[in-house]
Every structure is written in C-alpha cells, then in structure tokens.
Amino acid sequence: MKTLTAALILALSPLLVSAQPSWVKSARRGIVTLYAVQQRGDTLSCPAFFIDSDGTLLSPLKPLQQASRAWATDEKGTRYEVTRIGGFNSTYNVAKLLCDVSKRKPSPLQANRTPLTEEQPVYLMPSGEEDHVAKVEKANDHGYYTLEATADPSLGGNPLMNQQGEVVAILQTPLQKLGSPFYALDISFALSLEMSAMDVNSTDLQACSLPKQLPKEESQAKSFMYLCQGDTETKVAYADDFIAAYPQSSSGYVQKAECLASAGRYGEAESAYNEGLRAKVSDQHEVLYSRANVVYQLSVEGKQLPESWTLESALADIRKAREMSDLAVYTLSEARILYALKDYDGAAESFTELTKTNMRTPDVFIYIAQCRENAGASKEEILALNDSAVACFTKPYTAGAADYLWLRAGTLKDLGRYRDAINDLNDYEHLLSGNLTDNFYYEREQLELRARMFAQALADIQKAIQLSPSEALYYAEQAVLLYRVGETDEAMASCRRAIELDPTFPDPHRILGICLSEQGSTQEARAELQRAVDLGDELAQGLLEKLQ
Q1: Rounded-to-integer distance, Cα 425 and Cα 459, Å
Q2: Are 221 and 245 in contact (CB under 8 A)?
Q3: Minimal CA–CA distance to 189: which of 65, 58, 280, 63?
Q4: What is the pTM assigned to this prediction?
Q5: Which one, of 107, 133, 150, lies nearest residue 186 by Cα?
Q6: Confidence class of residue 178 from pLDDT cuts 50, 70 and 90?
Q7: What is the pLDDT of residues 371-411, one digit of tens each?
Q8: What's the burial of 346, exposed, middle or buried (CB within 10 Å: 0-12/13-18/19+)?
Q9: Which of 238, 243, 314 is CA-nearest to residue 276?
C-alpha cells in the first residue's frame, strides 16, 4: 500500500505542477525572510517581500516592535539590512521598510493596485495554491479581503497574487489559529504607508530602536525631527536625514548643532553650524541666531567652551543675524547677551526697542528696570518702569499680574511709600488667595508697622503664625505689636513662646524686659535684658544701663 501511494503521488505530481501558474517559481524569488533581533536578545522571523528594486520591503509589524536591528535574507542567502521604517499600521500589523540594496538589487514583485472583487481567483504564496475572494470589506478606504481557504499562521506576511503574477494584497496573520479564514490587506494600503510627525514617538514602536524615515512633506519632517525623543546619536541621525533631504533649510543644521552642543560636543556642534553657513541656506540668520543663543546659554551656565565661543562672538553672530532679518526675538537675544557682558546701557537700549514690537510684555519692562538699576538709575526711574510693567494689565487684574505687583511693592517700599506698597500687596493677596505663604504676611506686616497701621499688622502677623507656628521671629513681632496697642500681658506671653522656640534669639528677651520694666518688675526686667545683651543685642545694652 505504501508503495502504491508513493507511485500514485509521483504519477499525479506533473498534474499538480502544471496546475500552478507559470510565474510562481520566479515570484518566489521576491519573497524573503525578515529577521528581527529583539531588545531582549532573541530573534524573530517572518515572511516579507520586496515591492521594488530600491529596497522597499513589506512585512508584518509585530516582529519589529521591540527590535534593535533587522535584515532580510533571500533564497540565495543575500542579506539586506533594514535601514529605516518607512511606515506602519499596528491595527493591520503591516510595515513598510527600507533596506540597503547597494551591494545587490533584490528581485521585486510587481504590484497591482486594482481592488479585488468577490469570487475573483487569487494565489497564495509561496505555494501558488489557487483560492478565491469570499468577501470584500474596507480598511481605511482600501480593500480588506476574506478568502475561502483556512488560514495558516506561518504564512502571514506573504504576498497574495492575481492571475498575472502581480501582488494584489498581503496575507494577514490570523488572531485565531484554528479554523479561521485567511484575510488579506490590499497592497495599495501597505504601499500608502508613510511616517507623520506624530509617529516619531509612537507607543507602537517605543521599544524599537530601528530608525524611522522622515515624512516626505518638509513641515512634517521638521516637526518629526524636533519631536524626536532619544539619545544624541538618534537625534543627530534624523538631523542628517533632514539635511540630505532639505540642504537649503537651516533647520537640520541647527537641530544637529544644538543636539551636539547639549551633549557637550562643542567642536562637532561648531562644525554643524559652519556646515550650515557654508551651504548658504535661505535662512542663514537662523543658524547665526541659534549659535549665538547656544554660546550665550552655555556661557552663563559657566561651561568650559572653545576659545572661539565667547559672549563677544555670540554678540557678533546675533548682530549679523539682525542685519539679515531684524526679528524681535533677535533683538531680545542681543539684549540678553549685552546684559551678560555687563553693558547695561546697551542692554537697556535693546530691551527698549522691544517695547515697540509685538514682544512688548511686562517682562521687558522688568528687564529694562534691572539694566537701569545696575547702571545706577534712581528709584523713581525704576518705579516708572515697574508702573509700565503693571500697566500691561488692565483691572480687574488677572493672576499674571501678581509678580509685577510684588516687584512694584518692593520699589515703593524702598521709596518709603508704604501705604502704596500695601495697596499693591493687597491686590497681590486677592489674586493669589489661598496660595500665600507666611513670608507674604510677614512682609506686609512690616510695611503696615512702618505705616503705623497696627491693627492690620497684628492681623497679618497672626496669619503668619498660623501658617508657620514654629517660627520664633513671628511671635517676637506679635509681641511688639501687642505692646504697641497696650496688650502687655499678651505681649509677654508671645515673648515667652518665642523664647521657648529659640532661646538664642535675643529680640524676645529684650521685648520681655521692656514689658516687665513697665509693670515694675525691675529685677526680672534686668535679667531678661542681660540675657539679650549676652546674646549680642546692642539695643538691650542701652536699656539695661537706664535701669541701673
């Protein structure tokens, strides 16, 4: 029986071969095996196929999702390294890859983008077995086909051919291994896959270290390059890709240089900037602006830089950039560099220029104030600039005005205009209600004390104590205010609490000595004043001498 069966098979084999289309054997040469080495060390493999002689390879996506490197091998053992992921879709488990074909061109399959119809004959590869389309559905406006044959999970990623030997779809790996039909994704879907800016950090390929191809549209490619997360080498590689695609744009050179500079590779960064300047890019001023900013930032951080990278060289770069395109942001950069060079008058002049642009912001007036203060300007001039900063907001103020009110209050305090300063702090309190610290209430209490607003000052120091009940200074301040309003016993209790918290703090001993003296407890008063003197309080020394 065994001999008969073998003979029968041999007799039938010519019929089986003749039933296959003539193109099957040559089509098999276009099918390769994709190998993907995983981050954990093992290697996954799956069928794939070339769709052109330039190295475009279509394959399942899953083996690549945690891959550190990948390559395709044809039937002759020729190895084609995967250089880029050109596009992918995790829903349909398909990827378009780019391979290095410089050593040998592959044998690609010819694609036919004509959609399939129901009952149309198709051929499963690599066997060449005939099948038919049982059902036609849509996948992102492309065909998604159910075949009559039962799926073989090992064939996922192989091409589905038409009668002319053209690829019409890519076979899908079934989710259910037993009894499920074959599904196939229209070849036009796979060929349409491209990268977008949002794919650069896709979670589907988060663990894959294979580089991705830049999007074809320049603005998308630029966003892709800027959004890339990864190490310096990865970012520089994408910048090099961008430079190769768009050599007349400054963006690639700038991105490359800034990545290298942030990694401390200053010589390479300088070379990237010079490359951009030699290329005579259309927006050369952006290269100069970037280099000026990088040198400025690294200089103020105290980094050890090349001799050619100085604040003076940064100033020369930004001034040249301004000659080419006088953008407000360039003026801001010039102002900051001048300030770092301690050219306060020059910095103030540049900052003042910004007040005539769309960068007229409260911060600009504060920067001018800092410059003028360092140049020795009067407090009145600083106040006028503080007023201009606050005037950028309209009443009722929003929370954004809070910092500028605080700064103006400080200048008003320096000018002795305590009540005006208190008004600014009242507005500040209103804007940041619920987010205030004990220091705010202490600072306002100090102003209220000088303005002889004792009731308000007492209320504020009590709020400070509520927020920081272990701060001895606040109890001493409360004691002063209680004494001022005639609450001597309460003042003494507050002094004693301050002494409990910090026995080395002289002020509460002095204040307690004054209170005790007023009550006629001279001996106890002398003892407290002496403790204050021993702790270094000079004021207590004079008071003690008067009690002798």
Answers
A1: 15
A2: yes
A3: 58
A4: 0.78
A5: 133
A6: low
A7: 999 999 999 999 999 999 999 999 999 999 999 999 999 99
A8: middle
A9: 243
